[in-house]
Amino acid sequence: MVSKNFIILFIVITVSFSLYAYEPTDVVIAGPQMTDLEYFLDELKIIEDITGLKVQYKSFSDIETYLIKNENTDIDIALIPNPQGVVNLGDRSIIKPIEEIVSPKKMNNFYSEHLQKITTSENSLENYGAFFRLFPNSMIWYSVEKYNEIGSPQFNSYEDILNFTVEHSRENKNLWCLDIESGASTGWIATNWLEDLIISEYGLETYDKWSNQNILSSDGKILNSLNNIGKLVFIENAVYGTNKRIVRKEFRNNYKNLLSEEVDCVFSWGGHYADFYMPKDKTFGQDYNFFKFPSTMSKTSIVGIGDILTVLNYSSETGKVFNKLIDEDFGKQWMNQEDASYVPANKLNKNSITNPLTNKEAKLVMASLSENSFRYDASELMERKIGADALWSALKNYIDMGRERAYREIEDITEELDTNF
């Protein structure tokens, strides 16, 4: 029979070891599931070593909705995937203004004016976020082999692209793969095309007015930009499968077809996401590459997306970790990984990036940040009923109509779109 003293001793030893092994978390960060999660966690370990704090990351499929539905949470810092969500949470008093833990001076040193403005509430005039990562959209992807075969053309404007396409498109020699089908979200890729054209042809001021919904889609500049999409997709023999295929075939097909010997297309117009769908046996630089969409108004302007760090708990521990996350030296180890996709939003970050694709993207992003010519995806800044619904439908319908009908009915399309403003 086990003695009473032995049982007591056993309990004391067990509890002691449990307490010794238990490491309480000082700062909890929550955000979306990310491709480079392992590398991000490694960076958090570096922050732990520097600060002596225990940091935990929790992944959520929809962090914004989770925070709205769960007021009592242990989350200290939240990584929000879009600025509209940041302002929404700030206006609901779920997240807090960041000025108490990041000084305005530091924000101005680290971030472009645009990135600060779009996380600032028009109601409270408070800034609720600091950008963490950025991803460019304004890119033309191409097959290296096919591109070399057509003479490696250089384009300084969209007009150059159109002229080259007219001259080199012929039956069974389609230069472009432009599929955009994406289920209920079909049309979102075409909004990126429209954004590239507006910022390229009419500049940052017009782009900002449109994204803020201060000018309507029936405005001459926006209408012309919409018609400029038609100038490409309606060129005879320019698009693989014609305009009718564009809205009916899944966008992921573009990258398989781009690198296929059986399909002639050389170019595809898309964003950073394209790399995720390139055939796994193909290599960036060797088999495929990209160039920045040419801009006539501002050579460095680029449209993109990103995610934002926000604060739920004002504590000294939170402040220390938050400032490490946005620091200009953050991510040194992460960016040294051969497959890393991290592009910092801090315009002072000069860490070298090993991945050649990410390095090329980062150079474009950093050049735009230095001149405040990086612009966030306008459809993501608009009211959701417009940017994530009406605009998608309008572009899908426009492309599907074909040349004659689209040009004839363009004013009806923009008028219907404007009823949602």
Sequence stretches where pLDDT stays below 50 over 5 or more residues: 12-22
The CATH homologous superfamily of the largest domain: Periplasmic binding protein-like II
Mean of residue pLDDT?
A: 93
Q: What's the count of strands?
A: 9
CATH topology of the largest domain: D-Maltodextrin-Binding Protein, domain 2
Order of helices and strands: HEHEHEHHHEEHHHHHHEEEHHEHHH
Distance N to C terminus: 81 Å
- CATH architecture group name of the largest domain: 3-Layer(aba) Sandwich
Overall number of domains: 2
Report on the biggest sheet.
6 strands, mixed
Strand and helix layout:
Layout: H1 4-21, E1 27-32, H2 37-51, E2 55-60, H3 63-69, E3 77-80, H4 83-91, H5 104-110, H6 113-117, E4 130-136, E5 139-143, H7 144-149, H8 158-168, H9 188-211, H10 220-233, H11 242-246, H12 253-258, E6 267-270, E7 288-292, E8 302-311, H13 316-325, H14 356-370, E9 374-376, H15 378-381, H16 384-401, H17 403-418
Parallel strand pairs: 1-2, 1-3, 8-9
Antiparallel strand pairs: 3-8, 4-8, 5-6, 5-7
Helix pairs in contact: 9-10, 9-16, 10-17, 16-17
